[in-house]
Amino acid sequence: MTLLGHSRIAIDPAVCGGRPVVAGTRLRVADVLEMLAGGASAAEIVEDFPYVGEPDVRAMLAYAVALAD
Predict the structure, then answer these.
(1) Integer CA distances (angstroms), 63 to 3, 11, 32, 51, in order
(2) Contact 21, 60 (CB under 8 A)
(3) Which residues pair with 9 in a beta bridge?
(4) The domain that contains 6 carries what CATH number?
(5) pTM assigned to the model
(6) pLDDT, the chain, mean
């Protein structure tokens, strides 16, 4: 199930224990946020995980900001 306003983010109890992931993948939002916090760039993340794109990384950041509000 994708989230209203966050079509690139999905939560499914059968995938990664229901943690938010990039829709259609098992790449968890928390893992990408940790990589970004550790200094990785969006381009580096896309290089390491070619099944996601920079728009997915931006969507994960937007999702995190929405949760913080």
Answers:
(1) 9, 12, 12, 19
(2) no
(3) 22
(4) 1.10.10.10
(5) 0.88
(6) 92
